Automatic annotation (TrEMBL):
GO terms for cellular component: cytosol. PANTHER family: PROTEIN FAM72A-RELATED (PTHR31841:SF1). Belongs to the FAM72 family. It comes from the Eukaryota. Pfam families: YPEH2ZP. This is Protein FAM72A.
Length: 156
């Protein structure tokens, strides 16, 4: 988890956190449909967004794995598919201390200055969706449009 703020005492309120859609701040390309606001543990002034699963085909992994000074996690930079700008990173191999600590299970991070967040609405279109009501990523309607060409391909 690369040192994300993971406060176990806050766990009940985790479910009441809003779900964010994130657009690339450089080209406005959609790069996330289920983001959570998070704070870097090593530097609490650094704000991030994290997700369990980015929309298929919306992010590119760039360059080799590397480590930061924060912890032993191996990470890889991610770039927006629309413009190729760096928007965050993916934890490819989480370290022991991050796995031991209470975490939100998110291994995809977005730099808050590289994305533009908007609160995602629930199925009624009126209420802001919270993490307690977000569908599993495999069953998330917002993820589906990007899977559709593949689906058609398989059904022929
Ligand atoms: Zn780590
Ligand atoms: Zn972009």
């Amino acid at each position: 988890m690369s040192g994300l703020h993971q406060d176990c005492h806050m766990h009940p309120s985790f479910k009441t956190k809003p779900v964010y859609e994130l657009n690339c701040s450089y080209c406005d390309h959609l790069v996330c449909v289920r983001g959570m606001r998070a704070i870097l543990l090593a530097d609490k002034t650094v704000e991030l967004y994290s997700t369990d699963q980015p929309p298929p085909g919306m992010l590119l992994l760039v360059g080799p794995d590397y480590q930061t000074n924060n912890c032993q996690c191996k990470i890889q930079d991610t770039a927006c598919c629309g413009c190729g700008c760096m928007v965050g990173y993916h934890v490819t191999v989480p370290c022991h201390s991050c796995l031991r600590s209470c975490n939100n299970g998110h291994f995809w991070m977005y730099h808050s200055n590289s994305v533009r967040p908007s609160e995602r609405l629930d199925s009624t279109g009126k209420e802001i969706m919270v993490w307690a009501s977000v569908p599993p990523s495999s069953n998330d309607e917002k993820m589906v449009p990007y899977k559709l060409p593949l689906y058609i391909e398989c059904c022929r």
